[in-house]
Amino acid sequence: MTDTTAIIATHRHSLKHARAIQRALPLSVLFAPRALCAEPASPPMTPYDNLTELLTSLFRQSSAVVGLCATSLLVRVLAPLIAKTKEPPPLIAVSGDGRHVIPLLAVHSGGNRLARTIASALNTEAAVTTASDNVFQLALDDPPDGWQLASKKHYKSIVSRLLNGEAARLCNPPSWLHSDTLTVESQAPLTLKSSLRPPTEDANTLHYIPQRLALGIGCVRNVSSSAMLESVRKHLHTHNLAIEAVAVLASITVKHDEKALHDLSTHLGVPLRLFSAEQLLTTTPQLRNPSQQVFATVGCYGVAEGSALLAAGARSRLIVPKHVDGSITLALALARKPLIPRKGGNHIAIIGTGPGRPAMMTQEAQQQLLAAEHVVGYRLYLELAAPLLTGKTLHPFDIGQEQERARHALDLATHHHARVALLSSGDPALYAMAGLVFQCLDECAYKTPTRPPPSISVHPGVSAMHAASARAGAMLAHDCCAISLSDLLTPADIIEKRLEHAARGDFVIALYNPRARNRRTMLTKAHKLLLRHRAETTPIIIARHLYRDKEDITISTLKDMMRYAIDMYTIILIGSSQSRVRHIGTQPYVYTPRGYVLEDTS
Fold first, then answer.
1. Any idea where the domains of the chain sit in the sequence?
2. Residue-averaged pLDDT of the chain
């Protein structure tokens, strides 16, 4: 399930209540019909054209959905998908007047909680229909964050007995488990208990496990994932502790790329936290088994014990000192209360803004941008995306500071556990920021971060070459390629070699970065080279400031290309030998046929 909740307004009268819900859900995105998004709004709205397509797309992405519309509409549209989905995301229906909030799906997997949050924002009540919630004011199979119900095998029969008046015995109950309507007796046959101990199969007991354990791990390089999992299971069993009680894994930063640690984190569904040797040194007075050998190797006196203590937080205590199991060292620290990892942090969404207008961004890109806390980008890109950036922390950079942008985004995500959006114009994976971010992660100091590297998602945008082609017809309808004329990062002789081969191959060619103030000769060389392989009458498109206020699109010929104003805000498309200019009415268009043989049916 995604961290973002989608709020869908279906008409103007529901917008007021949709806004109230949006304010109550910081990581939400508000969708509205395109006609309602014409005027600037704060926070911004994401337009949609087809409600059925939007609902279907969001459901398939496992996004929680809040629809301000008829319940029957949501059910009718999503019924075919619901029938095929084992674990659907929360689905909430809200009446257009904001008076009724009805959780429909995943009610005991966050749906009821989400509905209550929405109802509170609207100053109304959620229409929760599940029996345990209504009678006990508790979702007994959906405990708060930081707690797990050990097994749901006997849940239905136990709750049925409770609803029919049987009493329960409370054993070490957390505060959230108290209910005025729950009959409690010290000798009752049913038991509701919380414990760090492994659960036993008992048809009369609901066993809740607080996630308070931090598991510190040290290991030799390239230990197998199966060996580590087995060692952890054996270790917890030896000390009579439930594996579900583990809330976080911890180790030293040099283990950032240890596959077994990441596999264990995925298997247990808990985060992995890494600490530097300097951080681990601060725990030296608390270590039970400081080691001079470990210090000589990695610069601290204990990895397993120290990292467990740091991950468990202030006033935690070591309950199981380090234990060496062959090539693996384990230790356990107990936190004062359940450890709830912050959701959505340590993530970078690399977003393509498209050629200029916010309307040209994909819905997915807008959703990711709206969900970000910090936005990093070239100043112009931030200005172009301004309607979507209200309330976010902006980090503007000058042109040419691509490495600084990438490193700053990585720092925000890894060291501040932030949810970061890194903006690129056009498509982020085409001459833009995505490749640089991955290169930094591959080659730079992020190989040894003080936390695990951030998760990365790349959200494509409309590239300049596709936008230019579309504005003037369909020049890219057949085989094509893109070549940057900037020799800042690619040697000039390689650029010329690629141009030569592309020209010989009769590709439609998109020329990026054609000219800058201090870089003017490569375009002249490219023009001369292309004229050796293409006719002077070859159609070209010169597009500047696509989809922006100063947009200028020219259709001309290869012979006359150098007559026009060309700069870094320009992209040039060079046609192949098959590309054609045709007038439809008074409007010229350029297209490249693919070879269809058409019959004249007129």
1. 5-136, 147-210, 213-334, 347-462, 465-591
2. 89
C-alpha torsion sign, points 557, 559, 565, 571: positive
pLDDT at 1: 43
Average pLDDT over residues 360-389: 84
Q: Is the pTM of this model over 0.90?
A: no
CATH code of domain 5-136:
3.40.50.11220
Closest CA to 301 of 328, 320, 282, 321: 282
* CA-wise closest residue to 476 among 552, 569, 576: 576
What is the per-residue pLDDT across 509-521, written as a single tens digit (0 to 9) for each?
999 999 887 787 8
Q: What percent of the chain has pLDDT over 70?
A: 96
How many whole angstroms separate alpha carbon 431 and alpha carbon 491?
15
* Cα 428 from Cα 407, distance rounded (Å): 16
Q: Which CATH class is domain 465-591?
A: alpha beta
For domain 347-462, is the CATH number 3.40.50.150? no
Question: How many other CB atoms are there within 10 angstroms of residue 79's CB atom?
Answer: 9
325 strand-pairing partners: 328
| Residue whose C-alpha is closest to residue 65's, from 14, 28, 113 | 28
Side-chain half-sphere CA neighbours of 154 within 13 A: 16
Report pLDDT for 411: 84
CATH of span 213-334: 3.30.420.180
The pLDDT value recorded for residue 40 is 62
